[in-house]
Amino acid sequence: MPQETTPLLPQANVAPRRDPKRALNYVLLLLLGVGLGAGAVMGWQHRPGLNDNEPMVPPIYKLPPPTGLPRNPAYLIGPSRAAVASEDKTCSEMGLDILHKHNGTAVDAAITTTLCIGLLNAFSSGIGGGGFALVSVPPNSEFGQPGVTSIDFRETSPAASSAEMYSKLGRTASQVGGLAVGVPGELRGLEAAHKLYGKLPWHELVEPVAELARSGWQVSRELARRLRVFGRFILKDEVWAAVYAPRGELLVEGDWISRPTYARTLSAIAKQGPSALYSGPIADDIVSTVQADGGILTHDDLAGYKSHSYPAISGPFRGRTVYTADAPASGGVMLGMLQIMDPLLKGLSGDECFAEEQSHQLIEAMKFAFGARSEICDPRFATNLTRLAEFRTPQWAATQRARITNHTHEPAYYGLETEPITDSGTTHLSILDQWGGAASVTSTINLIWGSHVMCPETGIILNDEQDDFAVPGLPDAFGLPPSPYNYPAPGKRPLSSTAPTIVHDPEGKVVGVFGGSGGSRIFPAVAMVLLNLACGDNVSAAVERRRLHDQILPHITTLEVGPDGVDMDWLAALTKRGHKIGQFDINVGASEVQAVIVDKKGVWAASDSRKNGIAAGY
């Protein structure tokens, strides 16, 4: 197979089949439909089409037809001029409309797509949450100095919080209810990105999502799954039930759903800007709802929230520069993991990269990264800033690489001395525009359905981000003490597993945009996709390839297993090295990556089928 000289992002080895159909025209003034160019990969022969069960009012976008398979097929989208990869087909298409029909930038598309995901997949993210973003401004643009900026819009702990606030109450108080809620940051983060590389007016990016919330859409396979598995609490709460169980039973795939209350909120934000959430009636509803549920969030907390922008951290990989988000995100340890593995895979390609020895090395590199992660915290509260900076250096990687032996070791060997935080949920989207600008956005409300708190007057679903802090006096299930680096404090941002990523070639041009969801599995999943690309996979195959995961504790390496099963000789060899391998169904979707790359033929995009995502390009 022909490849680039430096095969980090190889040419696709599957020729896509372009879909001649165009999507339905918008019934709304602001958006027009565009086509989805889709390629069938990995043996699937399927194209998105219209759902036969049409409601009285036709949806703006249609679901892919049912397949009878455990999840949607995998699609390789391209070659294109620009692309959007998100976890939902509708949202990918809405973002593409911004790029194609409205001539918007990657950030413009990211704002619409992020808000769309927060509407359609509200179990993952929304304006009641927060996250991190990377923005790459292209050379020779009207937006000033090119480069990659990282935007931290992680939720903060309220001013009345303290290190011991959950010690007597237990973990449940940090997961469900008002005391679990951190100060939301998503809108401030999108606002900062818009100021940096936005072209279209704010209201044109938000109002289409408000109109979708108002007019409604069909419940997707993924939303139906999250309702079925995680949504029983909804039936006991009339505010939630009005949206997700209006007839007394949880909605199922293909049902019609709308969120008129939330639509009014989005319209207010479209007209008034992001500040509408941080003061006035929307803020009143947030504060009163949280405090009525035992929380401590105040108007001052909302009014005082600020996002932080800084140059993205970076590291070398295969002749390219990998940019990502610094602490409290996990981009630094992802860079360390990549640099541990890079020399170990030099000269290998295809299945050679996934042989037993290389798989053992990958597990060990991941463990060293998780050992380092146990020291990560909000750098504004850190006493170990020099240490945090070490984890992304070639020197640190070389030291850990030299410590990889033929056998695995006990947790302390990898530097794990405190509890490994295991978060969950989250969404990610990767966008590359027609000018070479890029946006990589990871947003979350933390656990599935956040704090289980929905504001009745605004429809905002609030995060439970306080659960990402460590709790003094509460050792984890393995007897490890909590990390003092990550105790709650007023204004502090908790540790995050996210790693939004943008890759530049030596000339400073974007050649890849990546990121993922899935809690503590996020940064290893992103690293593995980059390694898969380096070994010759096309972008869809790199995203779809099964993954290993080992975060030191629990003392088990999990392996995704599909219909083809697992090589028993490979499994026996890893077991002989001391690894305890646990297998789980790849269709569970424990982590999901959205990716866009550039090669000599154009732009290629892939959304992870583990979460039923479909990318879009033109």
From TrEMBL:
<keyword id="KW-0378">Hydrolase</keyword>
<comment type="similarity">
    <text>Belongs to the gamma-glutamyltransferase family.</text>
</comment>
<keyword id="KW-1133">Transmembrane helix</keyword>
<feature type="binding site">
    <location>
        <position position="519"/>
    </location>
    <ligand>
        <name>L-glutamate</name>
    </ligand>
</feature>
<dbReference type="InterPro" id="IPR000101">
    <property type="entry name" value="GGT_peptidase"/>
</dbReference>
<feature type="binding site">
    <location>
        <position position="468"/>
    </location>
    <ligand>
        <name>L-glutamate</name>
    </ligand>
</feature>
<feature type="transmembrane region" description="Helical">
    <location>
        <begin position="23"/>
        <end position="44"/>
    </location>
</feature>
<keyword id="KW-0472">Membrane</keyword>
<dbReference type="InterPro" id="IPR043137">
    <property type="entry name" value="GGT_ssub_C"/>
</dbReference>
<dbReference type="Pfam" id="PF01019">
    <property type="entry name" value="G_glu_transpept"/>
</dbReference>
<dbReference type="GO" id="GO:0103068">
    <property type="term" value="F:leukotriene C4 gamma-glutamyl transferase activity"/>
</dbReference>
<keyword id="KW-0808">Transferase</keyword>
<dbReference type="InterPro" id="IPR029055">
    <property type="entry name" value="Ntn_hydrolases_N"/>
</dbReference>
<dbReference type="InterPro" id="IPR043138">
    <property type="entry name" value="GGT_lsub"/>
</dbReference>
<dbReference type="GO" id="GO:0006751">
    <property type="term" value="P:glutathione catabolic process"/>
</dbReference>
<dbReference type="GO" id="GO:0005886">
    <property type="term" value="C:plasma membrane"/>
</dbReference>
<dbReference type="GO" id="GO:0036374">
    <property type="term" value="F:glutathione hydrolase activity"/>
</dbReference>
<protein>
    <recommendedName>
        <fullName>Glutathione hydrolase</fullName>
        <ecNumber>2.3.2.2</ecNumber>
        <ecNumber>3.4.19.13</ecNumber>
    </recommendedName>
</protein>
<keyword id="KW-0812">Transmembrane</keyword>
<comment type="pathway">
    <text>Sulfur metabolism; glutathione metabolism.</text>
</comment>
<comment type="function">
    <text>Cleaves the gamma-glutamyl peptide bond of glutathione and glutathione conjugates.</text>
</comment>
<feature type="binding site">
    <location>
        <position position="154"/>
    </location>
    <ligand>
        <name>L-glutamate</name>
    </ligand>
</feature>
<feature type="binding site">
    <location>
        <begin position="496"/>
        <end position="497"/>
    </location>
    <ligand>
        <name>L-glutamate</name>
    </ligand>
</feature>
<dbReference type="GO" id="GO:0000324">
    <property type="term" value="C:fungal-type vacuole"/>
</dbReference>
<keyword id="KW-0012">Acyltransferase</keyword>
<feature type="binding site">
    <location>
        <begin position="444"/>
        <end position="446"/>
    </location>
    <ligand>
        <name>L-glutamate</name>
    </ligand>
</feature>
<feature type="active site" description="Nucleophile">
    <location>
        <position position="426"/>
    </location>
</feature>
